[in-house]
Structure formats: structure tokens, C-alpha cells
Write a structure and sequence with these properties.
The protein has 17 helices and 26 strands. It is of the alpha+beta class. The strands form eight sheets. Strands 2, 3, 4, 5, 10, 20, 21 and 26 form an eight-stranded mixed sheet that branches. A five-stranded antiparallel sheet has the order 12-11-25-24-23, with helices on both faces. A three-stranded antiparallel sheet has the order 1-8-9. One of its GO terms (cellular component) is plasma membrane.
């Protein structure tokens, strides 16, 4: 069904464009530059649309491109014998006589007989029209936007409106680059507005749009989307989102967000939940949730407390902490997921068991300012610089706005809003030896002549000493152990470092949290000794609720595919060139 809708939308683009071209013939006066040659009764200026640039994947395969077609336009006022003309056109176009007859009998203006006729067919019809065998018929060249990979990465790629303008995604963000510039032609026309054979007076050709090349790998993108779709079905989740990156270059290799099909009688912003809850991952394809969906992330936020505590010398990787079953802060009780007696835990155990109480104890020794500064350095609440439509930096409260209980809630991922991409970026800094690299989605542009302009290297800056990043990697590698929260994220033969997050969904318009409604998250890096790849998976309202039981196995599935595709060894060696290079495609993006 989605494919059918897309084709109809593309046809609408052609139909409106073709009709607009005909209206230009009738309504636009003589061009001032050629005023000495033209009269408003015999010559008119026609707009020539520019072929749109393509959007290519990193391997040169087109996500979005165009094909040349001919639109067949009828002026019913010039057609006096409809039946034989309809039969001839129907045979040439392969359409039913009834549909063609309907188009030829339209009252009150031009009509589109066929918006996307093959060029060979359009040429035959144009010759017959010029010979007088098909009066009232005009053939208008046009381009039809097509998406060869279908729905794959649709929220990232975007789509084009009937007016030929990008409406969301990269089609919108790069509209000026992709659209090119229209041209014009000065033509002689009859008194009825029909072109005169051989009547071209002057022409300025359009400038085709420039193509863009992405860092996205369509093979991995497909693997990711299939894994998310399966998880949504298995856990009856409202939706899921994932991003896979090269943490050293900032290149986004896959970025996906899927939603469960809407059920009859449910809200579009939260299923059967009350209207004051935050929206679920949307069914609207134009929302790219890795950058647009900010949520309370849960325990993946513990990275900020541990990074600050290690850097300030409050702890070392071998430190221990006496952890009670619960803490009371200003009358609010904070506890771990499972009840336990007071126990002495190592730093790796606090992370592996995702102890809220142990983390809060460290945060209390650090204080609000140190916690806030650590989050900010790691990129939380900061624009990641991707410049994607609809992207948000989320929200991180400054210490001056913290409530008395915030020292307990903020370090464990409450009282803040962050996007999946921001979370992954912060863990990428750990994977990259303490250097945070801005994410990159567009590798460069390709002109119609094959000229390549590479995008500037992504900005990078150090956010922690390399030694601290190494210590964090070691601590996070315990999270996927057999007695930890994410054994399902493990990959045979590889050491995986990462963190789970299970966070309750707050109500949107009032305080408190929804009973039984959670986000499950896992973010990780592989191989932990020398990370080559990183990824985040977030599942919206799954059953079971825990990130270690829902997002973690999806992470493992996605990463197994990525490690195999890029030839990454358990030691961190890369044996394939697929990860190190982007094939800057020399094509112009228009196919015959």
C-alpha cells in the first residue's frame, strides 16, 4: 500500500507540473528580452522544469532519483470528435478508452490524459499532434521522482510535494541543492495557445539539481529496519528506533525509526493512552525519531556521573561502595530495580546491576554542578550539529532549576529530555578515546558533470582524558556479562561494552508517571577493547519493559550483521573497505 501511495504522489507532481506549464503558455506574456520579436498573440514564454538531483547511499545506490517522462495534456475545446481520438490515444498509451474519453471531455480547462508516458510513446503522440492527427493534444517533457529502494530510510530521505518541493527529511533540508533552477523557452503559438511546429524562438535550458551522497549503508539500513520491525511485533511495542555509527568519524551508517500500525479507535499520539501522555514513536513517516524524539532515558544517563567521578578522583575502577536498598531524599524514596540488603558493590557491579542507589551516592558526593557539567560536555542538551529538519537538543535543567530531589533523579535519567542520537554521541566519545565527534549524514555533493565536493570533516573536541575513557570502557564491558542487566547484548567472540536503560514514561500535561509504560534502551560499542562500531536501540513501551530484555537483543542482532558486513575482527581490525570509504557516485541522478 505504501508503494502505491508513493507512485500516486509522484504522478500528482507530474500532473500539476504539466498543467502549470500549459497555463504558462496561456497566461504569461512575451518575454521582455525578446519584446521586439514577440506579440502576446503569437509567442509565449514556457517554464522548463529542472531535473532534481538524486540522493545516493554510501555505496552509490540511489535512495531518490528521477526518470524522464512525457505528460500528455488535452485541451478539450480543440477536440471536436472525441471517440476516434480517445481510441487512438488509448491504444498508444495502453489505457482504457473510458479513462481517456473522460479526460478529453473535461469542461473548463486542460486535463491530464497520462502524466507519465514513456518517452518513445510521447514522441509518437507529439508527431501525430503536429501532423494534425491528434488535435488538442500537447506533450510536455517532465521528470518523475522515484525511490528505487521503496520505504527504506524514508524518514531520513524525505519526500517531494506535488509542487516539486521537499517536504521533510533530506529532500527538505537540501531543497536548494537538489532542486536546481528552472529554464525557459520562447515559443510561437496559435491563437488557441497550441505550440506551432518548429516555433521555438529562444531557449534558456534549466540547471539540473546537484546530487548528494549519504553515509548511510542501505544494506545495513535494511538489516536495522527488519530487526526493529520484528521487535515491535514480538514485544507488542508502540515503536522502535536505532542508529548505527562509526564513532571515530561520526558517520551515521544506519538511522531508523518504525512504529507499530495504528489500531482502530486509538489515539495517534499514544495509542489507547490518555491524551496527556507524550506521543509514542509516530506513525507519521516524516518524523525522524533518532534526532526528533526526546525522552527520559533512564540508566544510560549514568555515564555522566561515572565520568565525572572518575575524572575528579572520587572513585577508581577498583573502588567499592556500600549500597543500601534505598535512599530517601527530601521525602522521596529512590531504590534499585530489585530489593536487596545493604551490600558492598564495586564500580563495575554498580553499572552491571544498574544500581540507582549506588549511582546516586556518587552523585551526592559530586554535587549538581559537576553532574550538569559532565552531561553538557558529553553533549546532552546540546545541538549535535546535524542540521536535520525537526531535530531537537532536548532539555537538561541547569542546577539553578534543580528541585531538592533532582540530585537523585537526574543522575539516573529522569527530569531531562534527550534524543537517541545524543545518547549515542556521548558513548561514542568514550569509544573514541574521550573525543566527541559530531554526527555526519551527508558525505558530499555530486554535480551533473561528476564534480565531487566532499563535506568538511565533522567537528571534534576532547571531552575527557583518554585514560578516563579507557576506564569507562572497562566498566561498561561488565554490563553484558551473564550476571548483569544485558547478557542478551553479548556477541559470541566479541567483548561488548554498553549500558541498559529502562525508564518510565511521564504524563505529558501533568506530573507523575504512567503505570506500566516504559522505554527500553541499550547503547553499546564493539569490540570493547578497540571500538569500531557503536549503536543505540530504543523500544517504546515494550512487553517486557526492560531495556536489557528488549533493546539489548536487537542491538546484538544489528551488530552481528554490521561486524560481518564490515569485516571487523574481535581485536578491532577491519578487513573490508566498505566502512572506510564512501563511493561518490558520478551520475546526474536522472534515468531514462
Amino acid at each position: 500500500m505504501a508503494r502505491h501511495v508513493r507512485i500516486v504522489g509522484a504522478v500528482t507532481v507530474v500532473a500539476l507540473g504539466a498543467i502549470a506549464a500549459q497555463l504558462v503558455r496561456l497566461t504569461v506574456g512575451p518575454a521582455p528580452r525578446y519584446g521586439q520579436l514577440a506579440t502576446s498573440e503569437s509567442e509565449t514564454r514556457v517554464v522548463l522544469s529542472a531535473p532534481r538531483g538524486a540522493i545516493f547511499a554510501r555505496n552509490g545506490v540511489a535512495f531518490a532519483t528521477s526518470i524522464e517522462r512525457d505528460a500528455i495534456i488535452a485541451d478539450p475545446l480543440q477536440i471536436h470528435d472525441v471517440a476516434p481520438e480517445a481510441e487512438r490515444l488509448a491504444r498508444l498509451l495502453g489505457l482504457s478508452v473510458a479513462s481517456v474519453t473522460s479526460a478529453l471531455e473535461v469542461h473548463g480547462g486542460y486535463s491530464v490524459v497520462d502524466p507519465d508516458a514513456l518517452l518513445s510513446v510521447g514522441g509518437r503522440i507529439e508527431q501525430l499532434a503536429l501532423d494534425g492527427a491528434l488535435p488538442g493534444i500537447t506533450v510536455t517533457p517532465t521528470t518523475l521522482p522515484v525511490y528505487p529502494l521503496g520505504d527504506l530510510a524514508e524518514p531520513v530521505i524525505g519526500r517531494v510535494s506535488p509542487a516539486g518541493v521537499g517536504t521533510f527529511g533530506l529532500e527538505y533540508a537540501y531543497q536548494r541543492v537538489l532542486a536546481g533552477a528552472p529554464g525557459w523557452a520562447l515559443e510561437r503559438v496559435t491563437a488557441q495557445g497550441a505550440p506551432v511546429p518548429g516555433g521555438l524562438v529562444a531557449e534558456h535550458p534549466p540547471r539540473p539539481g546537484t546530487s548528494i551522497e549519504l553515509t548511510i549503508d542501505p544494506v545495513l539500513q535494511s538489516d536495522v529496519e527488519n530487526a526493529l520491525a520484528s521487535e515491535i511485533e514480538t514485544t507488542r511495542a508502540l515503536g522502535a528506533t536505532a542508529v548505527v555509527m562509526d564513532p571515530h568519524t561520526g558517520q551515521i551508517l544506519a538511522m531508523a525509526s518504525l512504529a507499530a500500525p495504528a489500531l482502530p479507535g486509538t489515539s495517534s499520539v499514544g495509542g489507547s493512552q490518555p491524551v496527556d501522555v507524550p506521543r509514542a514513536l509516530p506513525t507519521e513517516s516524516w518524523l525522524n525519531d533518532p534526532v526528533a524524539y526526546a525522552y527520559e532515558p533512564g540508566s544510560v544517563a549514568k555515564i555522566a556521573t561515572f565520568a565525572a567521578a572518575l575524572e575528579r578522583g572520587i572513585i577508581t575502577p577498583t573502588s567499592t561502595e556500600t549500597v543500601p536498598n534505598q535512599l530517601v531524599i527530601d521525602g522521596s524514596v529512590f531504590h534499585d530495580a530489585e530489593s536487596h540488603p545493604t551490600e558492598v558493590l564495586s564500580m563495575s557491579q554498580i553499572l552491571a546491576q544498574s544500581s540507582n542507589v549506588g549511582t546516586i551516592e556518587l552523585a551526592e558526593r559530586l554535587g549538581p554542578t559537576a553532574i550538569y557539567d559532565s552531561f553538557r560536555r558529553l553533549g546532552w542538551g546540546v545541538d549535535p550539529g546535524l542540521a536535520f529538519p525537526g531535530a531537537t537538543a532536548g532539555y537538561l535543567k541547569p542546577p539553578s532549576e534543580w528541585s531538592p530531589t533532582a540530585i537523585g533523579s537526574t543522575p539516573i535519567g529522569q527530569d531531562q529530555l534527550v534524543t537517541p542520537l545524543e545518547i549515542l554521541d556521548s558513548y561514542n566519545a568514550v569509544a573514541n578515546g574521550g573525543v566527541l565527534v559530531n554526527p555526519t549524514l551527508v558525505a558530499g555533493t555530486v554535480g551533473t558533470d561528476g564534480t565531487v565536493h566532499l563535506a568538511p570533516a565533522a567537528p571534534r573536541h576532547r571531552v575527557m582524558p583518554a585514560a578516563i575513557a579507557s576506564e569507562l570502557l572497562g566498566l561498561f564491558s561488565h554490563v553484558t556479562g551473564s550476571n548483569a542487566t544485558a547478557p542478551d547484548a553479548a556477541i559470541p567472540g566479541y567483548l561488548v561494552a554498553g549500558k541498559t536503560g529502562t525508564s518510565q514514561k511521564p504524563y505529558h500535561a501533568r506530573g507523575g508517571y504512567q503505570p506500566g509504560a516504559y522505554w527500553g534502551t541499550f547503547v553499546g560499542m564493539v569490540p570493547a577493547q578497540h571500538p569500531v562500531l557503536s549503536a543505540i536501540v530504543m523500544v517504546d513501551q515494550p512487553v517486557p519493559i526492560y531495556g536489557g530484555m528488549t533493546a539489548a537483543p536487537v542491538f546484538s542482532q544489528i551488530m552481528r550483521a554490521a561486524l560481518a558486513r564490515y569485516g571487523v575482527t574481535p581485536e578491532g581490525q577491519v578487513t573490508s573497505t566498505l566502512l572506510s570509504s564512501v563511493d561518490m557516485h558520478p551520475g546526474a541522478g536522472v534515468q531514462g
